[in-house]
Structure formats: structure tokens, C-alpha cells
């Protein structure tokens, strides 16, 4: 059984060179990433979200996407999902 969570992400290129996006999660302040293009930024955002949340016992509530869109005009807002069990497995150190 997986622990899949979904949060709205804000992808902004307003202060970046063209095509580069910063990804933030209003409900998860420490989850920040970036990427070249929306697809890479979304994938990197999912990694950041998983790393921040996989060991949290109490997870923050997710804000409705429409509320996030209203609060962040001029940005791309999309839901990003991550499996927290998989994020935990991927964060384990590799034995040499």
C-alpha cells in the first residue's frame, strides 16, 4: 500500500531566464525546486515534495487549486502527486 499525496504547486518563470521555472508548494514551505520547462520543473518538484514529507507523521492540508491560482496570478498552478513510501526508499543511502 502506498502513501500517495497531492499538493498544488506554483511554477513561476517571472524572475527566471526564459523557460526556467521555480517550483514552490504553498502548503509545504520547505519544498522548493526548479527546472528547465514545465515537465522538468514538475518532476523536480515531485522529488522535493517527497523528500520533505516522507517522514512527516502529520501532513499539511492541501489548498484547493482554484484558491492557489487566485493567489498566484501569472504562474502555472498544477497538482503534483508523490508516493511517500517510494520517496523514503529513494532517500536511503546507498551501501558501498
TrEMBL record:
- Record domain HicB-like antitoxin of toxin-antitoxin system: where: 7-92
Check the record and name the Pfam families matching this protein: HicB_lk_antitox (PF15919)
Could you tell me which InterPro entries the record lists for this protein? HicB-like (IPR031807), TTHA1013/TTHA0281-like (IPR035069)
Q: Output the superkingdom of the source species.
A: Bacteria
What SUPFAM superfamilies does the database record attribute to this sequence?
Answer: TTHA1013/TTHA0281-like (SSF143100)
State the name under which the record lists this protein: HicB-like antitoxin of toxin-antitoxin system domain-containing protein
Q: Which organism is it from?
A: Agrilactobacillus composti DSM 18527 = JCM 14202
Source organism phylogeny: Bacteria, Bacillati, Bacillota, Bacilli, Lactobacillales
Amino acid at each position: 500500500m502506498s502513501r500517495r499525496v497531492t499538493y498544488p504547486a506554483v511554477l513561476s518563470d517571472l524572475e527566471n531566464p526564459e523557460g526556467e521555472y521555480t517550483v514552490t508548494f504553498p502548503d509545504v514551505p520547505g519544498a522548493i525546486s526548479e527546472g528547465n520547462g514545465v515537465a522538468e520543473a514538475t518532476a523536480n518538484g515531485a522529488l522535493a515534495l517527497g523528500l520533505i514529507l516522507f517522514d512527516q507523521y502529520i501532513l499539511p492540508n492541501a489548498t484547493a487549486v482554484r484558491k492557489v491560482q487566485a493567489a498566484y496570478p501569472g504562474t502555472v498552478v498544477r497538482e503534483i502527486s508523490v508516493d511517500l513510501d517510494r520517496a523514503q526508499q529513494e532517500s536511503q543511502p546507498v551501501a558501498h
